[in-house]
Specification:
The complex is a heterodimer. Chain A has no helices and 11 strands. Chain A is mostly beta strands. Chain A is globular, with a radius of gyration of 13 Å. In chain B, the strands form 2 sheets. In chain B, strands 2, 4, 5, 6, 9, 10 and 11 form a 7-stranded mixed beta sheet that branches. Chain B is globular. By secondary structure, chain B is mostly beta strands. Classes of the chains: A mainly beta, B mainly beta.
Chain lengths: ~120, ~110
């Protein structure tokens, strides 16, 4: 059974870059699509983007200019970088596995809280 | 992008009662590519339904999804104690993928 675990700094200063890693176990990342989603407190879920194990990715238009995603197949990890953060980027960030090439998400990590504050 | 509006925001019901959650899309959802997730406090969302009406593995048959076009519904036929949670809809037929704002099902 696949397991996903997000990790990274819980506090990021405004204007700096948020960097998170998702470590996947129980399954190779090579053949799947993997998504990043975030949930601000009291709000709904927001899709950030997705990346295939081959490295091809697509992003939410609202975040595209600030987002980078990558894969490290040797470590079976995904990474997310979000530049120029503001308080509006404060949220719980999740990584999740897509069902095949489909857009729905069948396995999720526990999530990690990132607070953008000085 | 497609905006999904869920209603009500909160549903206060007793165990054994029927829950009906609505998810309305700002435009037609392609191929009825709509999913539902359940999220409990401190946990990640869990996939309940996909393609509008297919239950994800392990989910009990008291959960039923229906709908087409712009109107979709998640029905829980008889609430069990473990069903009190927040429910989100998601459309994945048109990029970008979007989610509804969530409906909290709470114990009355």
């Amino acid at each position: 059974q696949v397991q996903l675990q997000e990790s990274g700094p819980g506090l990021v200063k405004p204007s700096e870059t948020l960097s998170l890693t998702c470590t996947v176990s129980g399954e190779s990342i090579n053949n799947y699509y993997w998504s990043w989603i975030r949930k601000p407190a009291g709000k709904g879920l927001e899709w950030i983007g997705r990346i295939h194990g081959s490295g091809s990715a697509n992003f939410s238009p609202s975040l595209k200019s600030r987002v980078t995603m990558s894969v490290d197949t040797s470590r079976n990890q995904l990474s997310l970088k979000l530049t120029s953060v503001t308080a509006a980027d404060t949220a719980v960030y999740f990584c999740a596995r897509n069902r095949g090439s489909r857009g729905y998400l069948e396995s999720w990590g526990q999530g990690t809280l990132v607070i953008a504050s000085s | 992008e497609i905006v999904l509006t869920q209603s009500p925001d909160t549903l206060s019901l007793s165990p054994g009662e029927r829950a009906t959650i609505s998810c309305r899309a700002s435009q037609s959802v392609t191929n009825t590519y709509l999913a539902w997730y359940q999220q409990k406090t401190g946990q990640p969302p869990r996939l309940l339904m996909y393609d509008t009406s297919i239950r994800a593995g392990g989910n009990p048959d008291r959960f039923r999804g229906s709908g087409s076009g712009t109107d979709f519904t998640l029905t829980i036929s008889s609430l069990e104690p473990e069903d009190f949670a927040v429910y989100f809809c998601q459309q994945y037929g048109t990029s970008p993928v979007t989610f509804g704002g969530g409906t909290k099902v709470e114990i009355k």
